[in-house]
Amino acid sequence: MNRTRCDQTPAWAALQALYDQSGKAFDLRDAFAADPQRFARFSQDAPHVFADLSKNLLDSATESLLFELARQCGLEQHRDAMFAGAHVNTTEQRAVMHFLLRNPAAPQYHPARAAINKIADLQAEVHATLDAMLAYAEQVRADEAITDIVNIGIGGSDLGPQMAVLALNAFAVLGKRFHFVSNVDAAELSGVLAQLKPKNTLFLIASKTFTTAETMLNARSARHWFEAQGGSDIGRHFAALTSNVQAASAFGISTTFGFWDWVGGRYSLWSAIGLPIAIAIGAEGFRALLAGAHAMDEHFRTAPLAQNLPIRLGLLDVWYRNFHGFSSRSIAPYSSGLRRLPAYLQQLEMESNGKRVDSQGQALPFDTAPVLWGEPGTNGQHAYFQLLHQGTSVVPAEFIAVKKASYQLAGHQEKLLANVLAQAQALMQGKVDVGGHKHFPGNRPSSFLLLDQLTPTSLGALLALQEHRVFVSGAIWGINSFDQWGVELGKMLAQDIEPRLQSGELAGLDASTAGLLQRLL
Ligand code: F6P
User: Fold this and answer.
1) Is the pTM of this model over 0.85?
2) Which residues surround ligand 1 with Cβ inside 6 Å?
3) In whole angstroms, what is the distance from residue 192 CA to residue 205 CA?
4) What's the CA-to-centroid distance between 209 and ligand 1, angstroms?
5) What is the span of the domain harbouring residue 225?
6) Is residue 70 part of a domain?
7) Model confidence pLDDT, tens digit, residues 325-351
8) Which of 95, 120, 164, 171 is the right S-S partner for 106, CB 3.0 to 4.6 Å?
């Protein structure tokens, strides 16, 4: 497969030349004045998401060169390889097929195409597991005795389900409370347990590996609490969501929903890890979430480069990171329901593309993932937007707005929408003031994603859009977006340090760690 590294392509050099000549000095206000079609040219409909990219620092010539870069890097072949089930996660020798979890129909068997037949077999397993999980979700929804669902998991086994349950609150079953415990700080689990009664509680132990230290300790403490409070039927009150079914049964859990090693943790909310979402919004709602994501998968798989929204966004990310040198992106969802989206996207982008070597392990001479951060609007406006407007660094913003509110209170939606439009406008236009303090330089870029309404379908599409744009920049950078070796060293050192907190043993530690440990004894 042709995967030429981006910095070795002619398009990369051409982009650098273009940046030096005109890209660096690009001014949005001039660009809009010169081109009355700019909004139409740089906005598009994708499934369930409308995107306005016109307030970004690029013109058609730049975008054409970015498409050329994509071609020269073999982006389309890499995408097709993922969809064909190739082992694109090269360091773990795994396929990457979270898209299969949302595919409504299996591919037709083909007498001579073993790869297709293998995917068809997997698809059948996916649907059988999905049917079983959704039947269980419906059973829990109908069970009035279960009032509290506690998801115990961390990283992808927490962020996706938590974000989606909050986002889809307007569609959630009444009479059930959802709790998410991820932190190993006892404050979190204790705070939740204090509100619960064993007979009314369902614990979902969510862990792909079923070995993650924090989750296992929280799960053991929850079981201990359950038994100490007189709870007895673990089979009814605990379920496991994991690809390590054996470990779940060794823990004593008999109700288990499995998934596969080709589903990465940060891509797992579509699998059994999505059970809290399914309990909240029901089987039909969960299938709508999958359908929205599938529509975006098909868009990503088939739309030509110039109308392919994940590709346009991913290439824009490369343009900003590698040519403009912008080191972060701010996510501003103007929707309270999406308040955990920035945290979810942090894992998606930074765990996927926060890499310093290419897929062959060679050190990269250019930057990769930006830092992602953000808060919902309008809250962010009253906190860090000062820096976006007048700070010394340019931070591209990504606004996400929803046309139709899920909750109606007179005047609220108008104010929310007026603010999101105004912020994007202010960042771009700026304001001249001789006084200095009140001067806004403007020309600060932003993208604007618009959903008609925050529904399971549109949320599914929005999340798949984000997954694929991360794939695109990762593919251009030539990295493996699907491993996460960078999280391992700290886990290993914590295992060494933990017994020292009892024994006081300091041998072999650096002076700072030893000094801190002594203060903690
Ligand atoms: O440590 C990082 C990580 O492996 C993430 O990739 C993952 O989402 C999280 O931990 C939780 O892992 P698990 O679902 O196996 O408990």
Assistant:
1) yes
2) 154-157, 207-209, 212, 215, 265-266, 351, 484, 487
3) 15
4) 7
5) 100-278
6) no
7) 999 999 999 999 999 999 999 999 999
8) 120
